Structure formats: structure tokens, C-alpha cells
Amino acid sequence: MKQILPTATTYDASNNDRLSVSAWAGMFGEFWEYRELTWRLMSRNFSAQFRQSFLGYLWVILPPVATTIVFALLRQAQIVNVAMPAGAMPYLLFALIGTTVWSFFTQLTLMATGSIAGAGSLVSKVYFPREVLVVSAAGSAVINFVIRLVVVGLTLLLLRYTPHWQAVLAPLILVPMAALAIGLGLFFAPINTMVSDMGRLLEFAFQFGLFLAPTVYPTPPLATLSGRWESLLFWLHSLNPVSHFLYAMQSLIETGTFAVTRGLAVSTVLSCLVLALGWRFFHICEPLLAERL
Q1: pTM higher than 0.70 for the full model?
Q2: Which of 108, 104, 113, 75 is nearest to 92 (CA)?
Q3: What phi-psi label fits residue 3: left (phi over 0), alpha (psi between -120 and 50 degrees) or beta?
Q4: CA–CA separation, 261 vs 83, rounded Å?
Q5: How far apart are CA 186 and CA 13, in angstroms?
Q6: Which value, to the nearest 10 degrees, does the dihedral of the CA atoms of residues 105, 268, 142, 48 take?
Q7: How confident is residue 20, by pLDDT bands cut at 50, 70 and 90?
Q8: How far apart are CA 194 and CA 220, in angstroms?
Q9: Mean pLDDT over all residues of the chain?
Q10: Residue 103 and residue 92: Cα distance in Å, rounded?
């Protein structure tokens, strides 16, 4: 009697299938299949941030609030000269919105970058699309940002500043900025498993990056540039893609208008491109991640 052997599945360790154009369908399919795991990890990550923490959720709002208060006091004491244009929102609100958005971009990138290295044995023992870890970490940063928006709303009430109703659409402008941050996180996450200092280097860079966008300093108008510092500040802000998302938000709050400028269009296209390339790079490196942990 002829014996029927069970069918064996062979796994190829090569990356040929990951380099092909058809890999996109598999990437989207796998990610959608594990959507429930993404949500569960997101919930776990958010609650784990403040476990055994004395201040708890206050740690979410303290960094942007503390930075805002420091620069507001420095400006009040005329130690730092920050001139606001006519018709602009109060400086306290301007700085709080700027630091809140920058903190969101920073935390989103850093949490996505450290998600694989922080998973440890979960990556080496259980198979699932590793993108799940990156997106779940990014989801925790989004929840933190929503909590910070509550503080921004309370500040509006305390200052008795009434923005235009179109300001409710301002967070939607940050969707492409979030795509840029996640794309950078997908690119740096595999590198961070090989070079553990990558996360620290990014954190150090983002601390200085706060001044490379209109967060605590408004961008000086091009027509009124009068010195090297103002010229340098103008070009640094203009070259930073995050700046153009902040410009659009500030315009909605102050005037209720939304203009698709060249900088905003370029920044949006760049964000989508970085997300696509970062995801593809991450997918190619995925078989090597377990070996590096």
C-alpha cells in the first residue's frame, strides 16, 4: 500500500520576494490580517507607559507645558526677544501649539524607532508582521497627542481667545506629518536593532530641532529680513517640512483660511514618499530583525 506523506511547506530565507513589486500586496494583506493584534499592543503600550508612575498621565502634558512656560517667562522678562506679527494669536498659545506639535512629531518618530528593540523576545519567538509593533507604538503617541490637545483647549479658554471655527480641522493637517514620522520610524527601527545609540542620537537631534521650526520662534517674514540671524532662521524654518504643517494650522486658527502653498504641497508629497520608502526598507530588513535582538 502506497504511503501518503503530509505536504511540507518550505520557507525561503532569501529576500527576492520582498524586493519585487508584488510584495506590496502581501505587506498590506498581512498588516490588515493582524489589525486586532495592533490594537491590543497599542492598548498595552499606552497603559505600560505610566505603570508604577507617581505623576501618571501628567508626564504626557508636562514636556510641552514646561517648555512653553519657560519661553513665555523669558519673553516676559525680555531675556528672549520674540516679536509676534500683527493679528497673531497670543504668544503663550503660539508656543504651546508649536511645542505640542513638535513633541508629537518627536515622540511618534522615537517610539516607532525603538519599538522593535523594545519588543525583545517577542520578535524572536513569535511570528507576526513586525510593522505591527511600529504602528502600535505610533498609536500610543497619537493618544498622548489627543490628551495634549485637551490642554490646548483649556488654554484657549483661560486666555479667552476665540479661534475661527475652521480650527477644528487643524489636527487633520497633521496626518501627513504623522506619515512622515512613521516613515522615519520604519526606516530607523531596523538600524536601531544594530546600533543601539540610534534612538539617543535622534532624541538629541530633536531637542535642537525644536528651534528649526516655528514652535517658540515665529518665522520672520522674507520682506523684512534685516540680519544674518533672521535670514538663517527663515531658511531653516522653510526647509523643515514640519514648519509648513504648523503654518497651515496657525492660519486656520488665526484667520480661518487654508492655502495649499508650495511648501505644504512639497512637504505632503515628501511625507508620503518617506512613508512608502521607509515601509519598504523595513519589510526588506524584517527577516534580519530577530537575529539582531
Answers
A1: yes
A2: 75
A3: beta
A4: 24
A5: 21
A6: -60
A7: low
A8: 41
A9: 83
A10: 16
CA dihedral 283, 284, 287, 291 (to 10 degrees): -110
User: Tens digit of pLDDT for each residue in 36-77?
Assistant: 887 888 877 777 766 655 566 677 788 888 889 898 898 888
Please state which of the ranges 11-20, 53-62, 183-192, 259-268 shows the lowest mean pLDDT: 11-20
> CA 149 to CA 142: how far, in whole Å?
11
DSSP conformational letter for 217: S
Band the pLDDT of 247: cuts 50, 70, 90: very high
Amino acid identity, residue 72? A
Contact between residue 130 and residue 286 where contact means Cβ atoms under 8 Å apart = yes
Q: C-alpha cell of 123? A: 520578535
* Grid coordinates belonging to 201: 542620537
The CA-atom distances, in angstroms, between 233 and each of 105, 225, 236 are: 20, 10, 5
| CA 235 – CA 240 distance, rounded (Å) | 9
